[in-house]
Amino acid sequence: MIQFKTLAEKYDTPLYVYDFNIITENFNNLKNAFKARKSMLCYAVKANSNLSVLKHLASLGSGCDCVSIGEVNRALLAGVDRYKIIYSGVGKRDVEIKEALERDILMINLESEEEMYRVEQIAKDLNVTARISIRVNPNIDPKTHPYISTGLHESKFGVDLESAKKMYLYAHKSSALNPIGIHFHIGSQITETSPFKEASVIIADLLRSLKAINIDIKFFDIGGGIGIKYKDETPILLYDYAQAIFESLKGTDVTVLCEPGRYLVGNSGYLLTKVLYEKKNDKKRFVIIDAAMNDLIRPSLYGAYHDFELLDTSDEATSLVDIVGPICETGDFLAKDVLLPPVKHDDVIVFKSAGAYGFTMSSNYNSRPRVAEVALIDGEDRMIRARESFDDLIKLERDFL
């Protein structure tokens, strides 16, 4: 039983807490689902990029899927093997491509024809061969929130099948490019197996056509997107998920890469916050807390739901309330129209399933320092990121006054 009140008093609030034992369990469950074939898990760093989280996953044998050179450098600093690091993303600057090639990571994932030409030129300038994969857009509806749906043609991500074929042919003939991977990622928070299966069949057919013309693809990268339970979702069965991928790959010899993010860390995390006070406007009741949209933006951005628990229970009658933060925006809420009994100053509320896209999407809006992060390992707690101070906020500005 996590002693949230003790943690809130020890480290103050708002506070992110991550249970590393849950991360370990999730990693091992997914790894076991893919054990029937050559496979590798490459954690999607964007979900939670804390160095201690990355180091813990590296100790379990995880690689990393990175979408910025900063994430690449975080992974390396945390001890992730460079040959387990993939650099993805639709917009990479020349200096970032150069740095990735110099780091000698597993591969750079290309998302456009023009990007391929830039990588080729930079590789020639460095006199190296760039190992690449291409993100192919299978035009599959993942049946998730449109902001996190990435597999349809109207998405900015990836290239269509015909464009991908042309790019592979070009890369195969280039002295500076070595196409070793094929990649797709159709979206996030997906709770049905069928979109994964449909996409895998389409991309596996492309894989076979490439191998038929001696383009030796070694890695079949299925991206991530496995959904978790926030409220009443029913997550997919990992065995069924893996078997759907295996079925599409019959007769091929490739290593399956999976890029889980939310699945590994989402349900491991909690955001602890204290009540400041209550107020009523006409018939509307508000509970004002010390956490805000700059700390956890998912409810404001996606209309996402995070289950929560008021630690100080009460026998008094509940009524509808909006749980809101101190930010000067009407959209600053963590929950709307939820039932709570009367609350008092310093009551602790715990928002659950906050381990993914919580701290990583936080900001300093309204000059609010970002919160501290704490890890729980076998019941022991330790700080893994200190709370920011005002001096941290202004240190890059002070010298220009």
Q: What brief labels describe this structure?
A:
Lyase, Ornithine Decarboxylase, Chain A, domain 1; 9-stranded mixed sheet; alpha/beta; TIM Barrel; 17 strands; 8-stranded parallel β-barrel; 401 residues
Word description of this protein:
The chain is globular, with a radius of gyration of 23 Å. It has two domains: 4-15 and 267-392, Lyase, Ornithine Decarboxylase, Chain A, domain 1, CATH 2.40.37.10; 34-260, Alanine racemase (TIM Barrel, Alpha-Beta Barrel). It has 401 residues and is of the alpha/beta class. The protein contains twelve helices and 17 strands. The strands form two sheets. Strands 1, 10, 11, 12, 13, 14, 15, 16 and 17 form a nine-stranded mixed β-sheet that branches. The protein has an eight-stranded parallel β-barrel with strand order 2-3-4-5-6-7-8-9, surrounded by seven helices.
State the end-to-end distance. 49 Å
Average predicted confidence as pLDDT:
94
Q: Spell out the helices and strands N to C.
A: HEHEHEHEHEHEHEHEHEHEEHEEEEEEH
Largest sheet: 9 strands, mixed
Q: What is the secondary structure topology, with strand pairs?
A:
Blueprint: H1 4-11, E1 15-19, H2 20-33, E2 39-44, H3 51-59, E3 63-66, H4 69-77, E4 85-87, H5 94-103, E5 107-110, H6 113-126, E6 130-135, H7 161-173, E7 177-183, H8 194-212, E8 219-221, H9 238-248, E9 255-258, H10 262-265, E10 269-281, E11 284-289, H11 298-302, E12 308-310, E13 319-324, E14 333-340, E15 348-351, E16 372-377, E17 380-385, H12 390-394
Parallel strand pairs: 1-16, 2-3, 2-9, 3-4, 4-5, 5-6, 6-7, 7-8, 8-9, 11-13
Antiparallel strand pairs: 1-10, 10-11, 10-15, 12-15, 13-14, 16-17
